[in-house]
Amino acid sequence: MIRNTLWVAAMVGTLGVAGAAQASPGPGPGPMLEKGPTDVQKVLDERAKIFAQADANGDGKLDAGELSHAFALLRAEHRLQRLDANGDGGVSVDEFNGPTRHRLAVLDRNGDGTISPDEMRRAWHENHERRGHRGDRCHGDHDGEHQRGWDD
Question: pTM of the entire structure?
Answer without folding.
Answer: 0.49
